[in-house]
Amino acid sequence: QLQLEESGGGLVQAGDSLRLSCAASGRAFSIYVMGWLRQAPGKAREFVAAIGRTGGNTVYTDSVKGRFTISRDNAKNTVYLQMNSLKPEDTAVYYCAGGVALTSVIRTYSQWGQGTQVTVSS
Predict the structure, then answer these.
(1) Residue 64 CB-density burial (10 A; 0-12 exposed, 13-18 middle, 19+ buried)
(2) CA distances (Å), 78 to each of 38, 39, 75, 86, 105, in order?
(3) Can you tell me the distance from the alpha carbon of 57 to that of 35, in angstroms, rounded to the nearest whole number?
(4) What tens digit of pLDDT does each residue of 100-117 get?
């Protein structure tokens, strides 16, 4: 089992940047594919980005490509999401999650954090 704790959320203006962090404890962090997912008010949870076990491969949803960058530091048991050029539609609770495959399929992620709120004002 992984215990995950997100941080770095906040209230920003459109065009600003934020860096989310997710610290992991518990079982070996490096055996998990790590993902970021988000849920906006009144909407279903959606996939944002994922990174492979060594950090060499990444996957992004189309709406964040070129703006968001996922990375991980296995020595620090931490995964990051650098978010640039933020838009109001990026407003959501952001969750990090551990999974078994580098995929956008949400059901493959079994270990979840509590989430961190990101609010982007126009």
Answers:
(1) buried
(2) 18, 21, 8, 22, 22
(3) 12
(4) 999 999 999 999 999 999
